Amino acid sequence: MKSESVVVLGAGGFIGRRIISALLATDWARPIAAGRSIRSADLPPQVERIRLDATDLSDLTRAAASASALVSCIAGAPDQITGSGNALFAAAASVSPSPRVVYLSSMAAYGSATGSIDETAPLRGDGGAYSHAKAAIDVLAAGHPFAVRLRPGIVYGPRSEWWSDKIARLLVQGRLGDLGRDGEGICNLVHVDDVAAAVLQAVRLPAAAGNAFNLANPAPPSWNSYFELYARALGVQPARISKARLFTELRLYGPALKVTDKVLGRNNPWQAYEALRPWLMQLVRHEIRLESGKARDVLGVRFRPLAEGLDETARWFLRSE
């Protein structure tokens, strides 16, 4: 009989669903999916579900009182991240014994840091509101000895809205590819199943408590290389994107697509054409490399080879078209 109840906040999202599936596959965990709209989430029918507001202290306290562990993979706006994080750690600290809390932070918490970054690097949180929110809750979590902080890089894999679907569309449409010097930043990719494996170990291993772990492929490619590898897995020749083309995408084409999407909604005939976002262009220039040896040595994570992961992701995308 599965003895450890693990409540997953944000279980209906891309990462949350994979964590639920990984927990289901064990002989020890009873996953419980939690969220406001969890009843309609695309999850296996046997998964127990509880409706709660992740920013509500009383809701989270009730969940914490009966759980062996809480896993938070809440996404969304910065105020949602801070509100849910503050409530989560207040709730977990208010019950005895405190359950293990696994908090999915982000590479974004390091902000503008560059070079090789391990878990001792300061959390600058200076990369915008999202970066600030992730850093603030990561720092809060560090004050709780029962908490484990996971800092994934770019989480890809089947069903990833941005890194597997929208990027694929841009590559297939020839609107993204080799960006020249603008694309030579480091792409800290990590497969979603590697994140789920890290979560399971973080829930169970005593040595994980109170620690932070970076999660990223130990040999990260440049963004140009990622785009090339993914394009070839998708069966297309990667395009060479000139500065003039990039200017047109960012200043003219992208904004026009966003306007038509807002005005026409589901009736937008250009819905399949994604807008190239300015924040993506900032990211592809960022030369930060996450050092993930600690996750390998303490959690035992064996990161999936990039070619294998991208081939799987490309097959998913092509089937879903």
* Helix proportion range: 40-55%
At CATH's second level, what is the architecture of the domain at 4-157 and 189-217 and 288-304?
3-Layer(aba) Sandwich
Encode the helix/strand succession as letters.
EHEEHEHEEHEEHEEHEHEHHEHH
Judged by helices, strands and strand pairing, the structural class is alpha/beta
**CATH classification, class level of the domain at 4-157 and 189-217 and 288-304:** Alpha Beta
Shape: globular
Tags for this model:
13 strands, Rossmann fold, 7-stranded parallel β-sheet, two-stranded parallel ribbon, globular, 321 residues, alpha/beta
Write a structural description.
This protein is an alpha/beta fold and 321 residues long. It contains eleven helices and 13 strands. The chain has a seven-stranded parallel sheet with strand order 3-2-1-4-5-7-11, sandwiched between helices. Helix 1 crosses helix 6, helix 2 (57-65) packs across helix 3 (78-94) and helix 3 (78-94) packs parallel to helix 4.
